[in-house]
């Protein structure tokens, strides 16, 4: 493995004037701060810790890999065999892992890959976006807290080979195939996490069993308080034979029959395990009345490992604005008031001979706490982050995230539906627009930016609709606040036309 292609000295105290890119193997404890550009695979070696300071921005070159190594020689992989400590802070102190592609495009780089079986990496207040898989936990169990995992092509987080990652206070949204994928005996724990606007919320394969919440949690079990809603195909798809606990959570509805419409489990296929989602958040015991469960359609198959493979799916009644009273933050537009469901295919079949992780004993690492080694400090284009005094009360900075609102999620006073662009209608082109929106104290749209679009005319139609929309004013701990949300506009054609 090639060493880094840059020059540095011990405890480098100054900024480097030139823009420097990195790639290769990190073989000694290293600290990054500022804006770091990556043009090839990075590997944090066994026994080595890479620390990333708050406010840093790690930028991956899109659709290239100078090292031509790893599982994907065409895209950059960030592989952690040692330990990553990416401890950001709220607001401007977040650590961002992103692509340099203009406008951002899902699948522009491969993603973060944790492979250390014995030492848990830490990610706090990070943003991971525009990768193929945002975060892969391969036999590794990192602690992921307060992070936004968004706009990735295959999955936001993929837990594989007995991973038991801990995911708390996160937002997993806008990922093309699924927000969370669990396979090969994985059992991640999720608490107080929002999973929304993904094609599928959570997909569970062979012998995996994520813990999404228990009504009476024991030691090491999830208390729930997750928000799982507004995913376009399914909220949870349980292909595992094991029953899953997803109690004490918030969904689109408080009605079990409505919640079950977006869940595929034993109710649809007797070979699958059941998703136990009652009692809901705020209820102690599930209702005794039996429920009639409608049959949902299965989700789209996983996209190929290509930036051009982007599945499109929509939920709810075609031609109607879904966001609003049921809380689904997606605006679905079609060309007819009613239409048959699009034919969908099953996700990839599970591997009958799954790969097993390397022998844990063969990966025994030295006790990092007992080793005193020099640390390399890498400072690129420095990003200054003002930190509040340690003895002062925490200051709430507007806008707050949607999950921090007293109500838990947005409500609409006026919900507008975009016009389908005529030129795209004639060419039968479908697509999606996702916008970051700042809502003012009075519920008006203060500002917006397009974070993803599949067509300029779709963008124009979405902006026109957004300008007509108004939200209910919101509070945080009883105080009026501005808040940040993501609006998703899905443009879908009637198959019969």
Report on the architecture of this protein.
It is a single chain. With 497 residues, the protein is mainly β. The protein has two domains: 296 residues; 134 residues, TolA/TonB C-terminal domain. The longest helix has 12 residues. The chain starts with 20 loop residues before the first strand and ends in a 6-residue tail after the last strand.
Can you give keywords for this protein?
mainly beta; TolA/TonB C-terminal domain; 17-stranded parallel β-sheet; disordered N terminus; 36 strands; 497 residues
Q: Helix proportion of residues, in percent? A: under 10%
Could you tell me the strand content as a percent range?
25-35%
Q: Which word captures the global form?
A: globular
Count of distinct strands: 36
Kindly name the structural category.
mainly beta
Quick synopsis:
With 497 residues, the protein is mostly beta strands. The protein contains three helices and 36 strands.
